[in-house]
Amino acid sequence: MIIPVEWTDEGVRMLDQRLLPLEEVWLMLKSYTDVADGIRDMVVRGAPAIGVSCAYGIALGVKNFVGTNVNDLEEELDYICDVLGKTRPTAINLFWAIDRMKRKFGELKGAGSDVSGIKAALIAEAKDIHDEDIESQRLIAQFGGELLNDGDSVLTHCNAGALATGGVWGTALGVIRGAKEQGKKVSVIADETRPYLQGARLTAWELLKDEIPVTLITDNQSGHVMKKGRVNAVVVGSDRIAANGDVANKIGTYMVAVLARQHGIPFYVAAPMSTVDMNCPTGEEIPIEERDIREVTHIGDIQLVPEGVSVSNFAFDVTPNEFVDAIITEKGVARKPYSESLRRMFED
Predict the structure, then answer these.
(1) Range of the domain at 29
(2) Do both 131 and 37 map to the same domain?
(3) Which stretches within 228-313 are classed as H helix?
(4) Core-most of 2, 36, 78, 279, by most CB within 10 Å?
């Protein structure tokens, strides 16, 4: 069972995903700035995992506050949230966690809680966010597993497994695990997911641990294996889903979705409701993070490209809702028109 981030009395314990699969190194982060660095520098990644880590970062910052004045604590909380909010712009779970922790603080302050009580309650709230994330994954696994057939070969892009969440199931890989739990034999084709190689390094590592058959391919093989009939479904995660069902996910997802449509293969997105941004009308409004070009020009310390060449490194792209056959959430499976089905889920 993989739990990539945990709360401890010493601080936030986090698996350094930058070193996988060759090394399993755990870091103990003792301040909210350490957690912010961990999110920004990809020690932890994946929208649900970022949300959980952010909540723990806020709780840790509040725990370390020295003082007895609630108004001073509120000022510190705002600053902590501002620092964490600047780490990864695309993943909506980050901002969802910030909003939830701030709302909890507001309730506590309004009820007259003192600083000690607020600290304890915000730590408990962060733990609740983590527990709820794991439960939402379990339900996603259940609903998503029902969409797969015995013997299916499923293509995934990036890593949307336990490593990308609070742990245990994952979102896209949770669907695979859910199908296995239902007694179905499924296998996975994982594309490498350049430039950060989350598929090659992380998805393959997770599935090998679970003894789920996995074949790794280069990103530019996706169309070929689809054409050869080796793919029965595509399942991916998401970092933000717009109100109309447009999906932001790791760069290259849009290409995979277009290929799946061309070959008549269902394209599913698995994500918790905390990833759905009902305040974002379409994918056009989703901010797309650009990362350090060194991720493209180098692997480790080895330079791959000519010095001085112009490089683009968009971390995410947006898949229009027309290419998405279903969005699998903890509240069930949403289908087109997503503007209606997702809204109903929020209202339930």
Answers:
(1) 5-138
(2) yes
(3) 253-262, 294-297
(4) 36
What is the rounded distance in angstroms from the CA atom of residue 328 to the CA atom of residue 131? Answer: 19
The alpha-carbon radius of gyration of the chain (Å, integer) is 20
**What's the whole-number mean pLDDT along residues 31-57?**
98
Q: Which residue among 107, 138, 169 closes a domain?
A: 138
Q: What is the largest CA-CA distance in the chain?
A: 66
Question: Which residue in the list 133, 191, 219, 239 is annotated as catalytic?
Answer: 239
* Long-range contacts of 306-313, Cβ-Cβ distance < 8 Å, separation of 24 or more: 313/195
- Residues with Cβ within 8 Å of residue 3, at least 6 apart in sequence: 162, 166, 167, 168
Residues 53 and 196 in one domain: no
Q: pLDDT for 296-348, tens place per residue?
A: 999 989 999 999 999 999 999 999 999 999 999 999 999 999 999 999 999 98
Q: What is the pLDDT of residue 264?
A: 98
* 162 and 4 Cβ atoms separated by less than 8 Å: yes
As a whole number, the mean pLDDT across the chain is: 97
pLDDT tens across 83-134, in order? 999 999 999 999 999 999 999 999 999 999 999 999 999 999 999 999 999 9
φ and ψ of 70, to 5 deg: -65, -35
The predicted pLDDT at position 8 comes to: 97
CATH code (residue 250): 3.40.50.10470
Is residue 128 flagged as an active site residue? no
- Per-residue DSSP letters for 134-156? HHHHHHHHHHHHTTS-TT-EEEE
List, for residues 231-274, the tens digit of each pLDDT value: 999 999 999 999 999 999 999 999 999 999 999 999 999 999 99
How many CB atoms neighbour CB 226 within 10 A?
21
38, 19: one domain: yes
Residues 158 and 204 in one domain: yes
Q: What values do phi and psi take at 327, rounded to 5?
A: -115, 120
pTM of the model: 0.96
